[in-house]
Specification:
Blueprint lengths: L2 H13 L5 H39 L13 E2 L20 E7 L2 H4 L9 E6 L4 E5 L11 E3 L5 E4 L10 E5 L5 E4 L9 E6 L5 E7 L5 E2 L6 E2 L1 E8 L5 E10 L9 E3 L5 E6 L2 E6 L4 E6 L4 E3 L11 E8 L7 H5 L2 E8 L5 E2 L7 E2 L2 E8 L3 E9 L17 E9 L5 E3 L7 E5 L2 H5 L3 E3 L12 H38 L13
């Protein structure tokens, strides 16, 4: 370097202001803040991608291998998430079980998401929901699964077109309405599927009540029994005067014979055998406390019809007396209606018993019901009703005595329904999987937004306070422990 150039550079250096350590540190902090901002931006992008992809990943579930390599009723169920996705939103295929109840995920609350709900458990153990817009709904009575598990029939469904009945396909999630006799679009409640799944028995009631019962205070709604052929779309009235719907015991209204040709019908204490044309083969009074055992009352050979007889409190019973009831099984001869004989089963202690069918042709599969705390019988009381039941258990009875619990369920479950094909084949013990939080209904956003705002309102100030505390602590540590070679204030000399 020449002497002249050295002189010029020295003069320029003398004119430049001295470097400030503070400026260097501030520049370094700015660089660190930029680095953190870039990192936060990248994390936000990654989280956004995950939010979009994770639900899709969670929604994809290869079918779990059921017991014996075939579809089976799960050996356990859980209460679904309150925002659980619906059948229409994301169908999960043929069902192995329906259940309803009064837990948060099966009802909601009076202030938020108060909807009647029925949970649908798919063959892979996944959960979806059917919603009924505020009407507490009983699975297996007001909502019924087809024998093959593919269809559900109900009187109405939230979001579906108004109809006499609504049939939902669990494979594609679509619902179609069914028109009743004389083209009626209201009002029916399903009672039983024909064994081949081609027809449905329904209780039709008038849309407008005809009066008020002075004893119960309930409106009077006359009902009639209708058989609807799902293939042809035709309906036939089998019993024109079934009775006031609010006085009917829903656990024991009808039962199809195994070949689907005959139907046992209850009207109070009277039971009749009716053909699909409405012809009455026989009719008899069973007397007080004796009822048709349930929708699966016919024995597998079709020769006998199971009945249950109540021993215990019948009128003005409190919850203790209701829980102490016992039920004895008996039979009617299907050809004549006379008392018959058959396999003996021990008495069952429960508020009510409802028979769904016969496992492997030998074991009655029944729902046993315990009363809700504080429940009392009286006018309008229904011993399998949503308000009266505290919990329900699905069991198989063994000839000679004893029982086996088929589905382990939480106390919030008040009713269940099982596809007839699985029940009769004895396919129980299927995959049990806790419900996944996704897919979710849009109602989840109503919960997520307030929670997100709460996290922002609480989390941001806490983060600011924590950062300020960290900075103060760093400065204090610097004053107490200055770096080697540092002058006053920790600035390098």
């Amino acid at each position: 370097m020449s002497d002249g150039l050295r002189t010029v550079l020295a003069e320029l250096a003398d004119r430049m202001p001295p470097a400030s350590p503070g400026d260097v540190w501030r520049a370094g902090r700015r660089m660190r803040r930029r680095d953190r901002l870039r990192l936060a931006t990248r994390l936000a992008v990654v989280l956004a991608v995950l939010v979009c992809l994770v639900p899709q990943v969670l929604r994809y579930r290869p079918l779990a291998e059921p017991a014996g390599g075939q579809a089976a009723v799960p050996n356990r169920v859980w209460t679904p998430w309150m925002w659980q996705g619906t059948v229409g939103q994301d169908p999960n295929g043929p069902a192995t079980l329906l259940f309803s109840g009064d837990g948060l995920g099966l009802r909601g609350t009076d202030l938020f998401d108060h909807e009647g709900k029925v949970a649908v458990v798919g063959q892979d153990g996944s959960y979806r929901m059917l919603l009924y817009g505020g009407a507490e709904t009983v699975a297996g009575e007001a909502v019924q699964i087809s024998p093959d598990g593919r269809y559900v029939v109900q009187g109405h469904l939230a979001g579906a077109e108004r109809g006499w009945l609504v049939v939902t396909d669990l494979v594609d999630g679509r619902s179609r309405t069914v028109t009743g006799p004389e083209g009626r679009t209201c009002c029916a409640t399903p009672l039983a599927w024909a064994p081949d799944g081609g027809a449905v028995l329904a209780m039709e009631t008038s849309e407008t009540p005809v009066g008020v019962d002075p004893v119960t205070g309930y409106v009077i709604q006359p009902a009639r029994l209708v058989l609807h052929d799902l293939t042809t779309g035709t309906s036939r009235v089998l019993v024109d005067e079934l009775g006031d719907r609010w006085k009917l015991r829903t656990a024991s209204l009808v039962a199809f014979s195994p070949d689907g040709r005959w139907i046992a019908v209850s009207q109070g204490s009277r039971v009749s055998l009716v053909s699909r044309t409405g012809a009455v083969a026989w009719s008899r009074d069973l007397g007080p406390g004796r009822h048709l055992a349930g929708v699966g009352a016919f024995t597998p050979d079709g020769r006998r019809i199971a009945t249950v007889t109540l021993d215990g409190c019948r009128d003005e019973c409190d919850s203790v007396a209701l829980a102490a009831r016992t039920w004895r099984f008996g039979y009617l001869d299907a050809r004549t209606g006379a008392d018959g004989t058959g396999a003996a089963f021990g008495p069952v202690t429960a508020m009510a018993v409802r028979m769904l069918g016969w496992r492997l042709g030998t074991d009655p599969v029944v729902l046993t019901y315990r009363p809700e705390g504080g429940a009392r019988s009286g006018p309008g009381f229904n011993d399998t009703g949503w308000w009266e039941v505290g919990d329900a258990t699905l069991v198989a009875l063994r000839p000679g005595g004893g029982s086996e619990v088929l589905v382990d369920s939480p106390g919030e479950v008040l009713a269940m329904d099982v596809p007839r094909n699985l029940l009769e084949a004895g396919r129980f013990g299927g995959p049990a999987r806790a419900p996944a939080p996704l897919p979710a209904r849009p109602v989840a956003l109503v919960l997520a937004v307030p929670l997100g705002l709460l996290l922002i309102v609480v989390g941001v100030p806490l983060a600011v306070l924590f950062g300020s505390w960290r900075r103060r602590r760093s400065r204090a540590d610097g004053l107490r422990h200055p770096r080697p070679g540092a002058g006053a204030g920790g600035i390098p000399a």
